Amino acid sequence: MIPGSQSRNTWPRRRQFLGLLFGLGFVALAVWMSRRGSSAKELGPRIATEIAKQPALSVDVIVPSRGGIQRTIQQPAYIQSFESVDLYAMISGYLKSQTVDIGSPIKMGDVLAELDVPRHAKAAEEAASLVEQARAHIMQVQARIRMTKADVAAAKATVAQAESDIDRLVARRQFAEKQYARVSSLVAQQASTSLLADEQQREVEAAVAAERTARLAVLTARAQLQAAESRVDLAKADVADARAALSVAEARRAKELVNLKYAKILAPFDGIVTRRSFHPGALIHSATEGGKEPLFTVQRADMMRVAVLIPDRDVVRTHVNDPAVVSVDALGGQSFAGTLARISRAENAERLMRVEIDLANPKGLLCDGMYGKAIITLARNSSNLTVPTACVVEHFGKTQGAVYLVRDGMARRTEVTLGADNGSLVEILSGIGPRDDVVLRARGSLDDGMRVASVVRNMVN
Fold first, then answer.
1. 10 Å Cβ neighbour count for 1?
2. Which CATH number does 84-110+266-297 carry?
3. CATH no. of 57-68+383-457
4. Does CATH number 3.30.70 belong to domain 120-262?
5. Weakest-pLDDT range from 182-191, 253-262, 271-280, 326-335
6. Which of 52, 112, 153, 218 is the most exposed, having the fewest neighbouring CB atoms within 10 Å of its CB?
7. Are 79 and 233 in contact (CB under 8 A)?
8. pTM of the predicted model, to two decimals?
9. Residue-wise pLDDT tens digits, 397-456
10. In Å, how far from its chain's centre is CA 449?
């Protein structure tokens, strides 16, 4: 035991004992005066005066600081490649060549492997021939359209000629009818012979027959015109059909060309090959034909994705761009600084929410599957008041406590609502104000209503 420590520890007890004796003396004095008939009005001021003469207890007070507590959370961290892709074959064939292996660095667009696909090459040639055939058919049908249009023009000319002949024959018939009427009049007057009348009648009948024939010729010419126009429409339909056939042929050719492109397996991004499944000469089945084994697995390595699961109680305090430090066990605890890049905004069955931290990996030290821990600095509530944890003299419940405030030279016990506590500082959510003097420590036993002499100390965060 340190010398003198026992006397320092017993001094507060002696003061309490002396205070008790002093109080008992005043009680005895009050009883004695009451027996002598003194009134309560005379006793009260005397007792208050005597109490006021007691020495004030010395206390240290502190002013609350606004800004809340900087809170951090430490959780396991799972390091994953930023992008990871399994590369499958889109067409079946034999593995002709392969330029990479496990661990090979790759650049976006690099040819990683090539398949031998002769059937698709022949199909592409056939599709190209079908395209040329469809184009030739279109040219033929277009020539037919031009020919049928010429037939339409000829038919129109025939119709016009036939219609003009009708006008001429109508005029001839009308003239013959007039001649016949004149000759018939003369015969009736016996100025002419009946033989002449018969000849004029035959002229009229011939003119009528010629007119009838001309009208039938017009009908025939119009029918021929309609047939020619129908052949034009048919030729136009043939052109549309030929063009559709050309489109089908071109689509087939484009499909086969795409299949030929699929024969080359290209790198989708800059990264590294982490898996290779086949060797040259192997028969590769496409994914659409039952191939379940990828040719390669490639991963992006210049940037890593760190997955962290945040417990439910800290979800509301987690925000994008919160700073984080990730230390990796496999690298001897080496730390990497980053920020929260993504928050899933959904908790799983264990009430954990996934967040992700992006870490640059220029030297390639981080690898997919590494394990470590992440310390994330959560956002603080700048409106909360903060005091040292030693100010809280009582705790009841999870969020309730009590502190002493100095008001008008008296110690006042005050109940408060507690927030975050980091062991040295605690947040006070309600119960005190930013200008209150909060008792940090007392030079003796402190009770509610006790006179105190305070020494103010500014808070240090």
1. 6
2. 2.40.50
3. 2.40.420.20
4. no
5. 182-191
6. 52
7. no
8. 0.57
9. 888 999 999 998 899 999 999 988 878 888 898 999 988 999 998 888 888 989 998 877
10. 61
Q: Whole-angstrom Cα distance, residue 58 to residue 367?
A: 61
Residue 133: per-residue pLDDT:
86
> Over the chain, what HEC string results?
CCCCHHHHHHHHHHHHHHHHHHHHHHHHHHHHHHHCCCCHHHHHHHHHHHHHCCCCEEEEEECCEECCCCEEEEEEEEEEECCEEEECCCCCEEEEEECCCCCCEECCCCEEEEEECHHHHHHHHHHHHHHHHHHHHHHHHHHHHHHHHHHHHHHHHHHHHHHHHHHHHHHHHHHHHHHHHHHHHHHHCCCCCHHHHHHHHHHHHHHHHHHHHHHHHHHHHHHHHHHHHHHHHHHHHHHHHHHHHHHHHHHHHHHHHHHHHHCEEECCCCEEEEEECCCCCCEECCHHHCCCCCCEEEECCCEEEEEEEEEHHHHHHCCCCCEEEEEEHHHCCEEEEEEEEEEEEEECCCCEEEEEEEEECCCCCCCCCCEEEEEEEECCCCCCEEEEHHHCCEECCCCEEEEEEEECCEEEEEEEEEEEECCCEEEEEECCCCCCCEEEEECCCCCCCCEEEEEEECCCC
Closest-CA residue to 307 (of 357, 372, 368, 371): 357
Place of tokens 């009451």: 34
In the chain, domain spans: 5-52, 57-68+383-457, 72-83+301-378, 84-110+266-297, 120-262
8 Å CB contact between 108 and 289:
no
72-83+301-378 and 84-110+266-297: identical CATH topology: no
**72-83+301-378: CATH architecture:** Beta Barrel (2.40)
443/57 Cα distance (integer angstroms): 6
pLDDT at 379 (0 to 100): 72
